[in-house]
Each structure stands twice: as structure tokens, then as C-alpha cells.
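Record format v2
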Amino acid sequence: MKYNPITKDILEELVEILGAKNVIVDEEKMENYSHDETSEEYAHMPEVVITPKSADQISKVMKLANKHLVPVTPRGAGSGLSGGAIPVFGGILLSIEKMNRVLEVDYDNMMIVVEPGLVTNEINGIVDEKGLFYAGYPMSLLTCYIGGNIAENAGGGKAIKYGVTGRYVMGLEVVTPTGEIVEMGGKNIKDVTGYDLKRLMIGSEGTLGVITKAIIKLSPKPKFATDLLVLFNDAESAIRMVPKIISEGRIVPTSIEFMDKLSVHTTCDYLNEHLPYQKAGSMLLIEVDGTVEENVNLDAETIGELCLENNAIEVYVADNYTTQERVWSVRRNIAEAFMVYSPEQSLEDIVVPIANIAKLMPEIEKISKKYDIKMPSYGHAGDGNLHTTLVKNPNTTIEEWHEIEEKALQELYNIVYELGGKLSGEHGIGLKRKKYMKDYVSEAEIMLMKKIKKAFDPNNIMNPGKIID
Amino acid sequence: MKYNPITKDILEELVEILGAKNVIVDEEKMENYSHDETSEEYAHMPEVVITPKSADQISKVMKLANKHLVPVTPRGAGSGLSGGAIPVFGGILLSIEKMNRVLEVDYDNMMIVVEPGLVTNEINGIVDEKGLFYAGYPMSLLTCYIGGNIAENAGGGKAIKYGVTGRYVMGLEVVTPTGEIVEMGGKNIKDVTGYDLKRLMIGSEGTLGVITKAIIKLSPKPKFATDLLVLFNDAESAIRMVPKIISEGRIVPTSIEFMDKLSVHTTCDYLNEHLPYQKAGSMLLIEVDGTVEENVNLDAETIGELCLENNAIEVYVADNYTTQERVWSVRRNIAEAFMVYSPEQSLEDIVVPIANIAKLMPEIEKISKKYDIKMPSYGHAGDGNLHTTLVKNPNTTIEEWHEIEEKALQELYNIVYELGGKLSGEHGIGLKRKKYMKDYVSEAEIMLMKKIKKAFDPNNIMNPGKIID
């Protein structure tokens, strides 16, 4: 695919559509838009950054881009972890940062209508007074945008009970790659009026259109929560608890987070935190929530007992905010803690059927030994979704590391697929994992994806170079 | 679109692929496959009925059908309510009735792998012993097939708490219109590895492929349930309770079913049932369920009190199986009861934002008076999804009725769309509602649907004549 450069004429047309202050060509200002939270090696400069304020403006931009064959890359908060918002072919970087209004709070339907550039957690700030909350829970909810969450179908730490972003998106307004403004879905709880275009948009990583408005479902906010920190001798015993809690305990917890020995030790050292971790070969962090305090306590008790009957060494209860924060802070600081060891990392997002995490763990250890790298594993055990991270050994050179990273990743993915897993549970394919698609996703499936892409975006100008080629 | 007839040669090829006993051309035997549960006026005979037993056979059939340009219409149990399985262009009727095996019960992952021809409720029969259940709940679950549920994204009476079919479909095996066998999704709770093809298949009414296998998620079965029968003076008071229960009560009930005065009276008379209905202008049937009995009782109590504070005349509690069955049997027999009055009916499936049902009710009454027909409304108030039914006045002729039906429906849909609603909440567009798509769905949206259809089915042979032309 050959794209045309952004000419002076195109810039003038952009200024006409958007106004001069929404068209940025200053190199220094554009630098921030050249990368997301993935490694710097994926960075690429745009030719121009635009900050539109309406679907109408975006529609005009898309028509212009089609006419001149220039690529358009939509971008949220830049908190992505797969390079999805990186303008690999230059062209126009379309930042939704100025489209951050709350358009309607509809308590009668328990929905909120927002623009895509709203910081996700702001929804909670608004609806909290009515005892409601947004049940999507990406770990970066204090900084990420709801539009980015939808484009990536973001997951997070509460998906086992509440599901991921897509469950709460009732309606979308989308500008298609050819510039049409399309409403999909609405405020209806059920809707089977034709193909589910909205669901196709969710998780399509900005390759099928720009989300310009979203109708989000709210849920009654649970009044009480309790966390259990459960210590096990080994990873397998911890992992085996996940289906037991749900089927034997008949409880769907809010979270079941897993941390292996390496993650816990390194992070506790980093935080100077003295959790009772010395004995632990692995840990589960289990949260239950609900509206009735006794019921939440009963659930926590049932789970604690079940764990103790099944090889847990110890169960600690965190039923107040301070202790809960201490425990969760360990979970949240794992990536940070390993940065001290080496900033050269590859944060993965593998997912396997929950029952297979136990089989995955020893294989990860083998790879780690073979290549002499650290590979902490932690994350959403309740969803089979682990953020196994490859961390460079400080004794190797950057060149050696890149070679090791590639080989180790391939071996990791091989095992994940043998176990029925997938490349990405919540971060997306984007730029970073695109090259692995052909090895792990069937040709027939890729062919259907390509046909859909072509149907929506005949000139391949919308976020090109992502997911598939 | 011109299709070719089924020739002797094609029949021979079908026999070669499927074996003689899986290729039916007997007119009498084929009659049963010419209609579903919609009115007889939509019926159409197939040229041949086939009963394949594997994805492989279906793949060969699709390749054959493409070569000869003959239409293929997939069919589940024939319990559809929109004519989706009717072979309007003749050709091959592909019945999945012989693909009804349970392929795997995976308790460790709490999933079951089934063929599409399995009767939905059989899943519950199998997994009940482990305290699990399938949380999809179409009202016809004792007779419908899981494959049909997926193709229609079937809803039902428990969607307010548990969501609809799509939430529980983890993976699909699909034979595409061009004969490729494609696996979509898998046993992973989270998965953002490329476009969500599985979600696009769900609810596509058999127009994008034949489902040949499904991985279904199981849930812990609630141990206790209580039903409340709540009487109101008018429909508006009843409807206004729905958001109140969820936001003020912070309870998401299992069901909130609504029955208007006409539905309750006619059905109670039909069943010779003496529910305390005389005073009621409308009724809500509210179910709550859970694992802890006291909690279920507390929820029921909270809801009951909230209703009494908000204009309910009376609240009856049905906390045992016999009383629950009595109450639900009224709800289930409404359609049947009106059959006595007239078998000429149009069962609709409109959906509006829940807060707008109250505005919809008086409009329905106006249409009913204007055309002198009965229009009982009942259904899933918790989802804004009402089965408003147009019932012919026995004093009019069939010709007059068809004219009235068309006009009244158009007026009904006009109001539904003015209120932000949609043509179908759970029954699908199929054949019956296709003609209304162009009036109510935007051109841009229809264009995207057409492009997707074309991408999957270039020769338009897979269930043609449904959803869009």
C-alpha cells in the first residue's frame, strides 16, 4: 500500500475543517502522539495531529483522507499496550482528546451518553451519588479514555463477575472509514434488528471506524467488598482453586488475581512491604462484593474455607480500605517493580482456558530458564488471562535481548495455542502482535477479517498496519 | 437474484455427500420444513431437505450449492417467530436436527461443547448435578435448539439479570457460505485476538454461515428463587417501577415481566384461574434468585416495599414451586388464550428504552381503538421488550384484517422508533420484518450490513431473502 504525503493543500483543508488550533504540525508537540505504552521501538511520527470536536468534522476528514489516500490513525489516551494508536504510516493522527463531554445522564434508563475522550473513571464520579457505577474496570481507568476501552474491548480485574467493556456498550455513533456517520444500537437492552455492527466495532482497534459517541450501561454499585489474600505452596494449587470457587462454592467473585512467587517477592521488596509472603509459592487475591454485608462476609468465609480445604497455606482477610489498598498495591506495582531490574520488557497478555493455567506455569518456567530471563506471571486468573512479562537480563546486550525476546515469545505463544489459548486477552493485537496472527489464527478466519476490513475501508486508510496486513 | 433449480444431478451429488436417508424429497415429509411458528402466509416449500451429520458434509454441500447457484436455508427446531428458517427461494433446506450430540462437558472450565441441534434445556439436565446451569433462557427452551438460539441471539425472560444467548457463547465452529470451516473464539473468557467474528455470527439469522458446534459457558445455579406478583392500577405505575428497583433498590431481579389488563384478564379467564386480578390495571411478575435464602427473601421484601411505596395496590409472594408455577403459567399462556379469540394474530417483539414503555402503552391503546382490534401487551418489561400482539377482530374479513394489520403495524413501529426503540428485541427480522428495515434502519447501517453479507456470501446463496435484500 502506497500512501500520499500530507501536502500543504491537505493541511489547508484540515485547517478549514477543524480550525488552526486543532491542526498540529509542531514536531515537539507531535512527539507525544508517536507512541503509546508499548516499547519505544514501535514509535512512529505522524505528519499531522488533529483534535476534532465533532463527528461531523471527523466525517469531513475521512472523506478528505480517502480522496488523497492518506492514512488516519485514531488515538485515545495513549495508554494502549499493543501499539494500536501508533501512526505507522505517518499521515493524520486523529486524537479524540477534545471530545470528552458527558452528553446525557439518563437515570431512568440507567445509562450515560458520553464522547469517546472522557476518562473512564469520570463516569463513576458522576453517577456515584445515585448508587450506580460503570462495571467495566480496566486497570488504567484513572487515565484511559472510554473510547479507547471500546476500541480495544478492554478487560481488567473484575471481568470474571462483570464481564469486559463490550457488555456495557449499548450504542455507538461511529464515523466509518469512508466518512459516513452511523448510529449502532441504542438504549435498548435487547436488540436483534439486523447484524450486530456495534459488537463488530467493539475491539476492532480503530481499524473499522472512529467512535464518536457511546451509550454506556450503568449498574447498581455494590455496597460492600472484602478481599482475601490466599497463600499457596505452588502455582498449580492456586490455579486449581478458580473453577472450584465458582462451581463448588457457587460464588462468582469480583476478582481472582494471581501472582507468582517472583512477582510477589520482587514487588514486596520494591515496595518495602511486609506481607506474609515468605512461605508463599504463589498467591491469589480474591475479591467478593455485594449489597448485603452479611452475604459478602459469608461468601468470603466460604471461599476461605474452600481454599484451606484445597492446599492453601494461609488465608488473610482484608475487609477494610487500608488493608485492601495495601494488598492491591502489590498487584498494581508488579510491572513497576521489574522496571528497576530492567526497563527492557515485553508485557504479554496471553489467555488460556482457566483450567489450563496450571499446565502453562511450568512451561513458562522452562522458557525463562532456557533463555536466562525473568518471566514473572501475574494477572487475571479468574479469566485465564496472564500478564506474563519477559524481562531482559541486565547482563545481555540489547541485540541479544531482541533475539531472545523473539524466540522466547514464539515459544510462549506455541504453548499458549497448544493449550487452547489466544495471543491477547485484553490488550489487543495492534502493531505489536500483528506478525504472530498468521502463525496462530487460521487462514479462513484471517480471510474473513480481511474481507470485513475491505468492506468497511476499501482504500485501507483507517489505522492501517494494525491487526492484519 | 436468479437461482437454479435442484436438478437430478444435484440430488445425486447430495446423496453421495450425505447418504440417501439424509436427503428428503417426499412432499409430505418436506411440508413440515416449509414454515416456522409465524403465520402460514409466510410458508414456502423447499425443493429438498437434507439432514447432515457433520461440518465436513455441510462444507461439501455449500461448495456444491455455490457451484450450481442454489439457495441453502439452515433450520433449527422450527420454533422461530420471524420466518428466518423458511426457504423462500426453495432450494436446499438444511436441517441440523441430526447434529444434536453433546461433545464435551468440561467442568474444569465450566463449559459444555455441543452440536447445534441439541434442545437447549438438555444442557441443564446434564449439568444440574454439578450445581451449574445455562443462564440463557428463551421461553421455548424445552423445544428450541441451541443452534437456533445462537443464530437469533435469543432473549427470554431472564435477560435483565443474565443477559441473552450471546453472553454465554464462548466459541463457534461455523461453515461459511463458501464452504470454509472456521473456528471462532474458544474456551477463553477474554479474547481480543482480531475482529470478533463470533459476535457477528451471533444473531445473524443463518445468513452468514451454518453453526456446527458451540462452546457454551455454564454458571453456578442459584439455589433459591422467589416470585412477586405485584398489582397496579395502571400500566404506567407498573412500568415506572423497573428502573426504581434496580437503581433505588440496588437489586437486579432475575425477571421483571409485565402483563397489561387485557392479557391478564383474558388469560385468567382462559385458564379458569382466580388470581386476585379484578382490581388490577396491570401486573408485574418479579423474580429474584440467589444462593443464600435469607438474601433472596430480603431482596423480595425490599422490592415489595418499594412497589407499595410507589402506587402498587397489592404484592403477593410466591415462594413455593406450586404458586410460582400458577403465576408463571398465566404469563406463558397469554398467546394461547388469545388464539381462542382469533387465530389471526401478529405477535410483535418491539423493544424500547425501559423508561419509555410507559409512554408507549397509551399509544398502543390508541391504535387498538382506531382499528377496532385487540392489542394485548405483555413481556419482558425489565428489558423494554414487549410482545404486543395484534389480534384480528372476528367480525372483519381476512382481506380487511391484512390491510388493518399492515397499517396498524406501521403505526406501531413509527411510535416505537420515535421512542428510541427497535423492530425486534429477540425474535429477529427474518422474513417477516424485512420490509420494515428500509424505513427504520439508516441507509448507512444497511449498507454496512449488505457489504458484510457480500463479503461472507458473494453469491447470496445462504438463507437469501432474510433481514435485507
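Chain B touches chain A through 97 residues (CB under 8 Å).
The CA atoms of residues 371 and 404 of chain B lie 7 Å apart.
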